[in-house]
Structure formats: C-alpha cells, structure tokens
Amino acid sequence: MVYRQLEHTADLALEVVAPDLDRLFAEALVGMCDCVTETATLSSRVRRRLEAAAEDRERLLVEWLGEALYLFETEGLLFRSATASVSEGALGWRVSGEAEGEAFAPRRHPWKVAIKGVTYHRLEVAPCPQGWRARVVFDI
C-alpha cells in the first residue's frame, strides 16, 4: 500500500508516497476513493478522463482530487485504479489521466465515510527519500 490514513481531529487526512509525481497523483486519487469504500470491491466498468490545472503542485492536487470527487457526487463514480501525467509549463502545472471504476452500489461496496471536500489545510506535495510525498485533508 502506498497510501495511509492519518489521524486528524475533525477531518480525514491522507498521506501518499510514490516514486514520482505521476504515480503520486494517481495513488492519491485511489487513496481518496478508498476512504469512501474498499476499492478492492470496485470493478473496472467505467473509464473516465480527468484533467486539472493550477499555479502550483499543491493546488493541482486539490483540483485533481476535486474532479474525482465531483464525479462521485454527480454520478456516484469511485475509482479502483488511475494513471496520471503531471507537467509544469509556462502557465503553471497540469495533470491529465484516466481512472477506472464503477458507480457506488451500497449492496456491493461497504460505506466508510462521506467526503464533502478537499481542503488546503496542512496540504503538502514535497520530495522525500522515497520520491514524493503528499498530505491532504478531506472535509467529512
């Protein structure tokens, strides 16, 4: 497992460690979905393209996860796997990728917690000895 939940007083915090930014963003998306349900119970019935842009890596992560959260809120979609391509350009940072999963079905997918939003509280995307680490807090 490359992500783990962190204890936090009122919200839910997630830490993700990966060898590169692409993998970090992909694992953060799956980690967020795993906070909602057991991603191992999800099938790969649906594939969606996701994109986000921001002025820095931290805001980019919030936008990226926000796109996935929007798909959950509007279509019930949760993802068991994802790919991401992160790049920096003259206008800031961009990420694009694909995620596979299916719509949440209470009879097949155990409910863990309802995520209301992705916050900037204690947000971090930084190099670490294993490559990159992200910490993000979700409003629940």
Structural features, described:
The protein has helices at 21-36, 57-75; strands at residues 3-6, 12-18, 46-54, 77-89, 92-103, 117-118, 124-128, 131-139. It has two helices and eight strands, in the order E-E-H-E-H-E-E-E-E-E. The model has no long low-confidence stretch (mean pLDDT 94). It starts with a strand and ends with a strand. It is globular and about 45 Å long. The strands form two sheets. Strands 1, 2, 6, 7 and 8 form a five-stranded antiparallel β-sheet that branches. It has a three-stranded antiparallel β-sheet with strand order 3-5-4, covered by helices on one side. With 140 residues, the chain is α+β, with helices and mostly antiparallel strands. A hairpin with a 2-residue loop joins strand 4 and strand 5 (92-103). It has one domain (3-139): Archease, Possible Chaperone, Chain: A, domain 1.
Summarize the structure.
This protein has 140 residues and is an alpha+beta fold.
CATH homology-level superfamily: Archease domain
Intertermini distance: 23 Å
Give the strand tally. Answer: 8
CATH fold-level topology: Archease, Possible Chaperone, Chain: A, domain 1
Question: Could you state the oligomeric state of the chains shown?
Answer: single chain
Q: Which CATH first-tier class would you pick?
A: Alpha Beta
Q: If classified by CATH, what would the architecture be?
A: 3-Layer(bab) Sandwich
Q: Helical percent range?
A: 25-40%
Give the tally of structural domains. 1
H/E element order? EEHEHEEEEE
Decide which structural class fits the backbone: alpha+beta
Give a quick account of the main beta sheet: strands, pairing sense, barrel closure.
5 strands, antiparallel
Number of helices: 2
Shape category: globular
The rounded Rg comes to: 14 Å
Give the strand content: 35-45%
Mean pLDDT: 94
